[in-house]
Amino acid sequence: MNTRMPSNSIKTGRIMLHIAFWVIVYVVFLVIYSVKSTYAISAYNGIFYMPLHMGYFYLIAYWLIPAYLLRSHYISFIFWVLCVSCAAAFAGRVIDILIGNPNIIKNLPSADWSIIEDSKQTFWQQLFNPYHFISSVKMMNFVIWIAVVIKLFKLWYERKQAAIQAELRALKGQVHPHFLFNTLNNLYALTLNQSPKAPGVVIGLSDMLRYMLYECNADKVNLKKEVIMLQHYMDLEKIRYEDRLEMNFNIDGNLDDKMIAPLMLLPLVENAFKHGTSEMTGDTWINIDLNVTGNKLKFKVSNSKPETVAADAGKHYGNIGIQNIKKRLELLYPSTYQLKIMDDEDVFLVMLELELTQAPALAVTQLTNS
Predict the structure, then answer these.
(1) pTM summary value
(2) Is residue 165 assigned to a domain?
(3) Which of 149, 190, 252, 324 suits 10 as a labelling partner, its CA being 20 to 30 A distant?
(4) 286 and 146 within one domain
(5) What pairing do the DSSP bridges indicate for beta strands 258-260 and 221-222?
(6) Using one digit for the tens of pLDDT, what is the confidence trace for 308-335?
(7) What is the pLDDT of residues 59-115, one digit of tens each?
(8) Angle at alpha carbon of residue 61, lines to 56 and 66, rounded to 5°
(9) Same domain, 69 and 133
(10) What does the pLDDT average to over 34-53?
(11) Highest mean pLDDT among 14-18, 81-85, 119-123, 268-272
(12) Same structural domain for residues 209 and 151?
């Protein structure tokens, strides 16, 4: 099941991160500006500079970026950034002139002579001094743009994750109707023939729908439950094909403590039925081998091959199910899977290898007791 942090906890954690960041910034400035003064003077002046740095950052991060940059108004964004940067630099100079420099002159007998000389000028002469204005710009942007870059990276990452989750939901949504369409066709054929097996199909389908509705909403499900769902599916297909289908499902390894993305294996098994068994009029076979060694899953599905597709085997695996699983594997297991599709003269073979995750201890206990 999905575990979500309460919104209050998330907000509190975010506030604490911001506080920690500004404390670090304060300490950095304290050390830098104490080189030409003292820690006491630097600490006192920092009290007045910090609100200016914070206001500068939050204007960019929470006004200009959402209002202009994220809406692709790049010229307006650059214009307003320059305006805010200049305003912040002038505000920094005001603090220098009225608070910072007088504090240094008053408490540091060996104060830099340039500070003393500048203090003899009028307020406006000091404010518009080009050299000191450029220094103020550098001071204001020294840390702020590090913070802005962090903010932009965070926004990019959140948007990327949101896009991935949206695509995964769409891909998972394709599995359900695809599977239901095939299974309901099987049930329809049985009801037309008034087969006594139809009620068993309804019960099996009900169990599978319950799994899909209540288990598959999680990012990962227990591998054992996924395999049980596959067995339900194969039991339904056996009812349809009866004696002309020879099916073998071999399982090796411990499934209880392993997790896998839901409905990851079903398209491979479903494909073997749809493009193998259903297209053959005589006897047919499907072999499935599932092996778990450590955290590595090896899943192999092979099925007899209809002669009608022998010349164009690419269509056999060009359907929505296989394309779906390829996309999901790229998103969920980008560097930890291998998918091989092989076409021999009389057999189709699919082999999937991927890294499983470990199940929480509580989930394993519940599964064992159920």
Answers:
(1) 0.55
(2) no
(3) 149
(4) no
(5) antiparallel
(6) 554 444 444 445 567 777 888 888 888 7
(7) 988 899 888 888 888 899 899 989 999 999 899 889 888 988 888 888 877 766 777
(8) 135
(9) yes
(10) 86
(11) 81-85
(12) no
Domain count, the chain: 2
Query: Residue 175 domain-assigned?
Result: no
Q: What is the per-residue pLDDT for 2?
A: 43
Whether residues 82 and 210 share a domain: the answer is no
Are 13 and 124 contained in the same domain?
A: yes
| Final residue in a domain of this structure, among 134, 159, 184 | 159
Beta carbons of 121 and 31 less than 8 angstroms apart:
no
Q: Which residues pair with 352 in a beta bridge?
A: 299, 339
- Residues written for the chain: 370
* 357 shares its domain with 311: yes
57 phi and psi, to 5 degrees?
Answer: -65, -50
- Least confident stretch, 119-123, 156-160, 356-360: 156-160
Q: Does 180 have pLDDT greater than 80? A: no
Note the pLDDT of residue 283.
Answer: 74
* 186 in any annotated domain: no
CATH code at 220? 3.30.565.10
* Residue 265 and residue 298 in contact, taking contact as beta carbons nearer than 8 Å: no
Q: Is residue 283 part of a domain?
A: yes
| Residue ending a domain, choose from 159, 186, 221 | 159
Range of the domain at 104: 7-159
CB 294 within 8 A of CB 304: no
Inter-residue contact 265 to 302 (CB < 8 Å): no
Q: Are residues 111 and 211 in the same domain?
A: no
